[in-house]
From TrEMBL:
It comes from Streptomyces galbus. GO terms for biological process: DNA replication. Residues 253-331 form the BRCT domain. Residues 214-249 are annotated as: Disordered. Residues 21-185 form the Exonuclease domain. Keywords: Exonuclease, Hydrolase, Nuclease. This is DEDDh family exonuclease. InterPro entries: BRCT_dom, BRCT_dom_sf, DnaQ, Ribonucl_H, RNaseH-like_sf, RNaseH_sf. One of its GO terms (molecular function) is DNA-directed DNA polymerase activity. Gene3D superfamilies: BRCT domain, Ribonuclease H-like superfamily/Ribonuclease H.
Amino acid sequence: MLEDRTAVSSPTEWPAAYPQGYAVVDVETTGLARDDRIISAAVYRLDARGEVEDHWYTTVNPERDPGPVWIHGLTSEALEGAPLFQDIAGEFAARLAGRVLVAHNAVFDWQMIAREYARARSEAPVKHRLCTIALSKELRLPLPNHKLETLAAHFGVVQQRAHHALDDARVLAEAFRPSLRAAAAGGLRLPLHECRPLTEWQDRPAPLIGRQAGGSHGGGYGGYGGQRGGGWRPSRKRPACPYPNPGRYEVGKPLKQGMRVAFSGDTSVERDLLEDRATEAGLHVATSLSRLTSLLVTNDPDSGTSKVVKARQYGTPIVDEAAFGQLLGDVEPADA
């Protein structure tokens, strides 16, 4: 077990408003899109001060093609005898209940989990999530990037089996523990986000076995088909961005908190996930494009959509989804 490099000197100094427990989670999936499925899940339960209580792991039969086996290593044969999600939903819920869900890029894990529960006509008992990327930024850790292996190396945690849910959850738990103690020592407000249940599948037929097998899968997670048409995507009211707009994005420089970002057209990663990642990074997600927009993200800059046309007129910088994903990894903090 990793020794904590930052300790709180007295029990009375621990912030009273901090959560009473955490569930450090990692899920491996068939891909990144709205209809992709969980194929394995792991949970490390920690108490209020980050001490490990227990851990749990399971594989899950996704009832479809397992996706990028070369990444997660779980073949159709390996998953054939695994339980369905509805079979492990109760035990999974028991390990999440009453705790803050902690994950690396937490919005992704949360949405995947929430959708599985929606398909099972249920809800995950999670009220708040905490992203370790956001926490490392709040702590101003001197990291060259925000990959899990980079965070682990900073705290001296050895990763043994990347993209295996149990090992990824272990690594994240051991990196989160000293981060939590550093936050407590500095009286830092934890970057918690509300988790709302998703109901997209509760009135739709359950997925058929083998549905979409071999469909739009590409070479790796980034190549999976995402939202297409998306006419049933519910509108979402996001909290106001707390940072002032620093102006337009400049090519070759990082994004900065407060920048206004608009999206246009189809994306391989679902739009909600991209928008949530942008919001958690401190960016302002705009539904329309104006002279104040800092950046337009589109995979089809020649599409002629109204946003693309306005971006050309206003001189708004345009980047594709892949470039935007890279920029999200290192967003500059807003000016004090």
